[in-house]
Amino acid sequence: MFCSKCGAADQSAAFCQSCGAALNAAESTSHPAAAVALPAAASNKLSNMAWVFGIISIFILPYVFGTAGLVIGLVAKSKGETRATRAIVISAIGIVAGFIVQAVLLNSMNTGY
Length: 113
Description:
Blueprint: H1 32-35, H2 45-59, H3 62-78, H4 84-111
Helix pairs in contact: 2-3, 2-4, 3-4
């Protein structure tokens, strides 16, 4: 058996001979790989939120939703999210596209077409 704290092998006593951790059948494992904690999968929640704000900014209030998308994207980048750069780009494009859509819509309202 292996210690769940340090992974040392051949644990037959009540305490680990390497690190001194208390052992019982529930804590010790039969394979050392099971004792190693795996890192959690990277979350992209903030990046996804920034994507949504960037896309919304094309159609509604680009200066509000686009700016929110940029800020959230920058926070996501500082936290190391993998999709943060794409979210920032989409938010920036959303701001520009939103202003273009607004200009076209306002122009068509004024000309009557």
